[in-house]
Amino acid sequence: MLRKTSLAVLVGLSFSSLATAEEGFRQHDAHVHGQVEFNVAQDGHDLLIEITAPGADVVGFEHAPENAEQEQRLQKSIALLQQADQIVTLNAKAKCQIEKVDVAHTLAGDEHHHDHHDADEHEHEHHDGDKHDHGKHHDDHDHDHDHDHDHDSHGAFTVQYQYHCDNLAELSTLDTQWFSHFAATQSITANVLTDKKQSATQLSAENARISLK
To answer: Which of 55, 80, 50 minimizes the C-alpha distance to 210?
Structure first.
């Protein structure tokens, strides 16, 4: 089975060989409100979709929740992102089964994971992270530190969906419903690396289909 870390490295190495202009664009605009990145990589029968999005696109802010309304918005967004079929649609003929979902964010300045499939690996981190975040605004622990996070860091989300597909040859495209759920996003850069294709294309609300071949 593919490990997400090796796939992430694979995608990074492969796309570093694309045109200099495209690479420069990605590095310069690594965190721009309204711009989201999808990385789609295939290895044998395994498919990984990795999404990187500014916090502002997902929840409307890029810091730890400061009130009950923001906390509710965060939890609702995490719950939505954990439902892969609400974000991407794969051809049923490809017989793809979701094997792993990981939703991580850096709204509090450090990374917090919400992982349904590797509970033993992430459960302790998830619960400790929640307690740490909620307490941060109620003690007088480093107000300046929190202030720095709000202004010097840009909270973002990273989402990973890992599938195993019995008939991957039937998967020529995939559609995303991202724009329907997150209206603040203006464009998506879709980087594709399969045994048939290596490309980087721009998606919009009017054209939200990713070609895999």
So the answer is: 50
Q: Which domain holds residue 181?
A: 4-211
pLDDT at residue 134, as a whole number: 44
CB neighbour list of residue 151: distance below 8 Å, 6 or more residues apart = none
DSSP 64: S
8 A C-beta contact, residue 133 and residue 67: no
Concatenate the DSSP letters of all residues of 103-126 into one string: EEE-TTSS-EEEESS-HHHHHHHH
Sheet with 88-90, edge to edge strand ranges: 88-90, 173-176, 209-211
pLDDT tens string 35-84: 999 999 999 999 999 999 999 999 999 999 999 999 999 999 999 999 99
Plot region of 38 (φ>0 → left; ψ -120 to 50 → alpha; else → beta):
beta
Cβ atoms 200, 39 nearer than 8 A: no
**Total tally of structural domains belonging to the chain:** 1
Over 50: is that where the pLDDT of 176 sits? Answer: yes
